[in-house]
Design brief:
- Chain B: Belongs to the binding-protein-dependent transport system permease family.
- Chain B: Pfam families: BPD_transp_1.
- Chain B: InterPro entries: MetI-like, MetI-like_sf.
- Chain B: This is Sorbitol/mannitol transport system permease protein.
- The complex is a heterodimer of chains A (about 325) and B (about 290).
- Chain A is of the alpha+beta class and about 325 residues long.
- Chain A has nine helices and 18 strands.
- In chain A, strand 7, helix 5 and strand 8 form a beta-alpha-beta unit.
- In chain A, helix 2 runs parallel beside helix 4.
- Chain A is globular and about 75 Å long.
- Chain B starts with a helix and ends with a helix.
- Chain B is an all-alpha fold and about 290 residues long.
- Chain B has 13 helices and no strands.
- Chain B has one domain: Orthogonal Bundle (MetI-like fold), CATH 1.10.3720.
- The chains are: A alpha+beta (about 325), B mainly alpha (about 290).
- The interface between A and B is medium-sized, with 24 and 18 residues.
C-alpha cells in the first residue's frame, strides 16, 4: 500500500514561506511527477513527504495514518537521491544490504534479497565493486537497488537522472517506468524536465513558487492547461503566446498556439511572415517565423522534408481547434 | 609542452633551492654522524679520538635510555589517542549549527597559536600548581587534598598539556573533513533506518578515516620531538619520569657536555623516527591512495 495524502501542508524557512498550504492526494500505485522550474519547491515538497524536513503546518497521511511526526526511517518510504548518495567505502553488495542490516535482518536473508535486487537491476556482476568503479547508470541502479530491498510503500526520486548524459537518461527513464509497471508501487518523482514528466507520469503535479498550478494526466495538461504557466511549461518546443488585436479578435487577452498546431504555407494563410532560423531534426523541422502582426517570432513545427530558407516569405495558419485562450489573469477561457 | 630546453631550464632554476635545502640537511647530519664516533666531551678538552661505537654502547645501556623510550612512546601514544578521540568529538559538536559559531570555532583553535614554552608555563603556574593553581583551589574548595601534578602524575600532566595544544589541530582537520561529507549520504542512511550511532560508525567514521590518518602522521612527527613543555615544567623529572628521547639527548650533550654521546643519541633518534615513519606510511599510507 502506498497512499499518501497531504493536508494543508506548508513549509517556511524562517520568514520565507517556500510552500504555502497545499493539498494533494496520491493514490496507491500511481506514478506521480512533481515538475516545475528550479526553485519552485518541488524538492522541498518531496523532502517533506520523506520526513527529511519538518512541516511548518498541516499533516501528511501515509495509508490513512498520520505520519507528520514519524521519523523518516519509520515512514516506510525509500528515496533515490540526485547524487545517488551511495556509501563510497562500501561495496555494491554492502550498499544494497545497508537498510536490511540496519533493520537487523540476518545475513542469509540479506544475501537473498540483495541477489534478488541485483538480478532485477542487472547488477549481479558488480556486487563486489565499490561505487567509485561504476558508471553513472550503474550507480543509479545501485541507488534504486538500495531502495527496492526495503520493499517500501512508496519510492521517492529526487531528480535521479539529472547527472546522466542524454542517451543514458532515455534508457534509465524506460527502466524506471518498467520497474514501476512491474512493482506497481507508488512512485513520486521530482524533475525539472517536462519531457521526463510527460513520458513517465500517470499524474503530473505542476508547481510554481510552492503552489500547485495544475494536477492531471500528461495529456490533460497538454490539451487543457489551466493557465499560461502550465501552457508554457508543458510541451516542447514551447507554446507560442500572442496578445494584442489577434487575441482580442477571439475575445481573449492572450492566445496560445502550439508549434505543432500551426500550418506553414508559401502561398496562403492568416499571418504572413518571414522565416528566421530553422532547426532541422530530421523527423521534424522547427521554423522561427517573424510575423508582421506580432513582436515575438513564432515557433512552428513542419515535416522534416519541408525546405524553407532563411528570409523566405511564408504564411502561418493556426489550427483553431487547438487554440488556447487566456484571460487577463492568465487563466484558461473555455 | 615540456621541451628538452624547457626541462633543462627548469632544472637550472630549481637547482639553487634544492642545493640549499640539501646542504641544510646534509651538513648537520654528517657532523652529527661524525661527532657520534668521537670521544668529544667539553669538560675534558684535548684531542677527540675516534672511539667507534663506544658512544652508542653507553647511550643505549644507560638505564635512562629505556625510561626515555618508554616515556616517548607513552607520550606520543597518549597524546594521539586523546587528540584523535577528542578532536572527533569536538568536530562533531562544532559541526552543529549554533549561535556564535564563528567565535567559538576561533576560540577552540586558539591554543594552537600559543607557544609551547608559554603554554607549559601557564599550565604549570596557573593551573597545576598545588598552591596557586586553579585546580588546587578547586580541590581545596571542595575539601580535597590538592594534587601536586608534576610530582605525583608528571607524565600524565605533560600528556595533558601537549594534548591541549594539539587538540585544536586535530579538531580543525577533522571538522573540515566532516563538513566535506555529502549531506545526502547522511540523509540516505537516515532513510535507510540508521540510528545516530550507526550513522556515525558506518558513514562518518569511514569518511573521516583519511583525515585521521593525516592527523596521526603529522602529529607523530611533531610529538616525537616534544621538548619545550618538558623543559619548562619538570626538567625531565622527577628522576627520569618525564624524560623522553629528545630530552635525554639534551641532557647528554648540554647538561653533561658530552657532545659525542649526545650525537649518538641524535643518530638513534633519527633512525627511530624513520622507522616510525616507514611503519606509519606502510600501515596507513594505503588510506591516502584511494
Amino acid at each position: 500500500m502506498g497512499q499518501i495524502t497531504l493536508n494543508k501542508v506548508s513549509k517556511s524557512f524562517g520568514e520565507l514561506e517556500v510552500i504555502p498550504p497545499l493539498d494533494l492526494e496520491i493514490k496507491d500505485g500511481e506514478f506521480v511527477v512533481f515538475v516545475g522550474p528550479s526553485g519552485c519547491g518541488k524538492s522541498t515538497l518531496l523532502r517533506l513527504i520523506a520526513g527529511l524536513e519538518d512541516v511548518s503546518g498541516g499533516e501528511i497521511l501515509i495509508d490513512g495514518k498520520d505520519a507528520t511526526d514519524i521519523p523518516p526511517a519509520k515512514r516506510g518510504l525509500a528515496m533515490v537521491f540526485q547524487s545517488y548518495a551511495l556509501y563510497p567505502h562500501m561495496s555494491v553488495r554492502k550498499n544494497i544490504a545497508f537498510p536490511l542490516r540496519m533493520a537487523g535482518l540476518d545475513k542469509a536473508h540479506q544475501d537473498k534479497k540483495v541477489e534478488e535486487a541485483a538480478r532485477v537491476l542487472n547488477l549481479a556482476d558488480y556486487l563486489e565493486r565499490k561505487p567509485g568503479q561504476l558508471s553513472g547508470g550503474q550507480r543509479q541502479r545501485v541507488a534504486i537497488g538500495r531502495a527496492i530491498v526495503r520493499e517500501p510503500a512508496a519510492f521517492l526520486f529526487d531528480e535521479p537522472l539529472s547527472n546522466l548524459d542524454a542517451a543514458l537518461r532515455v534508457g534509465m527513464r524506460l527502466e524506471i517506468s518498467e520497474l514501476h509497471k512491474r512493482l506497481t508501487t507508488t512512485m513520486i518523482y521530482v524533475t525539472h524536465d517536462q519531457v521526463e514528466a510527460m513520458t513517465m507520469a500517470d499524474k503530473i503535479v505542476v508547481l510554481r513558487a510552492g503552489n500547485i498550478e495544475q494536477v492531471g494526466s500528461p495529456l490533460e495538461l497538454y490539451r487543457t492547461p489551466r493557465n499560461l504557466f502550465v501552457a508554457g511549461f508543458i510541451g516542447s518546443p514551447k507554446m507560442n503566446f500572442v496578445s494584442g488585436p489577434e487575441a482580442q479578435k477571439r475575445d481573449a487577452t492572450t492566445i496560445g498556439i502550439r508549434p505543432e498546431h500551426t500550418r506553414v504555407s508559401t502561398d496562403t494563410g492568416d499571418w504572413p511572415g518571414v522565416v528566421g532560423v530553422s532547426e532541422h531534426l530530421g523527423s521534424d523541422t522547427f521554423f522561427h517565423v517573424k510575423c508582421d502582426a506580432f513582436e515575438e517570432p513564432l515557433t512552428v513545427r513542419a515535416g522534416g522534408e519541408v525546405d524553407l530558407k532563411y528570409g523566405d516569405k511564408v504564411f502561418l495558419t493556426p489550427d483553431s481547434a487547438h487554440l488556447h485562450r487566456f484571460d487577463r489573469e492568465g487563466l484558461r477561457l473555455p | 609542452m615540456a621541451t628538452k630546453a624547457s626541462r633543462a631550464a627548469a632544472r637550472l632554476m630549481i637547482a639553487p633551492s634544492v642545493i640549499l635545502l640539501l646542504g641544510w640537511m646534509i651538513v648537520p647530519l654528517s657532523m652529527t654522524l661524525y661527532f657520534s664516533f668521537l670521544r668529544y666531551n667539553l669538560i675534558m678538552p684535548g684531542d677527540n679520538p675516534f672511539v667507534g661505537w663506544e658512544n652508542y654502547y653507553w647511550f643505549v645501556t644507560d638505564p635512562s635510555f629505556k625510561a626515555a623510550m618508554v616515556n616517548t612512546l607513552l607520550l606520543v601514544g597518549g597524546v594521539l589517542f586523546i587528540t584523535v578521540v577528542g578532536g572527533t568529538l569536538f568536530a562533531l559538536l562544532l559541526d552543529q549549527p549554533m549561535w556564535g559559531q564563528g567565535i567559538i570555532r576561533i576560540m577552540v583553535i586558539s591554543p594552537f597559536f600559543v607557544m609551547p614554552t608559554v603554554s607549559g608555563l601557564v599550565w604549570k603556574n596557573m593551573f597545576m600548581n598545588p598552591v596557586n593553581g586553579i585546580f588546587g583551589h578547586l580541590a581545596k574548595g571542595m575539601g580535597f587534598e590538592p594534587i601536586d601534578f608534576f610530582s605525583e602524575i608528571p607524565l600524565l600532566s605533560i600528556i595533558g598539556i601537549v594534548s591541549w595544544q594539539w587538540l585544536p589541530f586535530a579538531t580543525l582537520i577533522l571538522l573540515t573533513a566532516l563538513q566535506s561529507l555529502d549531506s545526502e549520504q547522511l540523509e540516505a542512511s537516515e532513510m535507510d533506518g540508521a540510528s545516530w550511532i550507526s550513522r556515525f560508525w558506518f558513514i562518518m567514521l569511514p569518511h573521516l578515516a583519511r583525515a585521521i590518518t593525516v592527523v596521526v602522521l603529522i602529529q607523530t612527527i611533531f610529538l616525537l620531538s616534544i621538548f619545550a613543555e618538558i623543559l619548562v615544567t619538570t626538567n625531565g623529572g622527577p628522576g627520569t619520569a618525564t624524560t623522553n628521547l629528545t630530552y635525554l639527548i639534551y641532557v647528554s650533550s648540554l647538561l653533561q657536555f658530552d657532545v659525542g654521546m649526545g650525537s649518538a643519541g641524535g643518530v638513534i633518534a633519527i633512525i627511530l623516527a624513520n622507522i616510525v615513519a616507514i611503519f606509519l606510511m606502510r600501515m596507513i599510507g594505503k588510506n591516502l591512495d584511494a
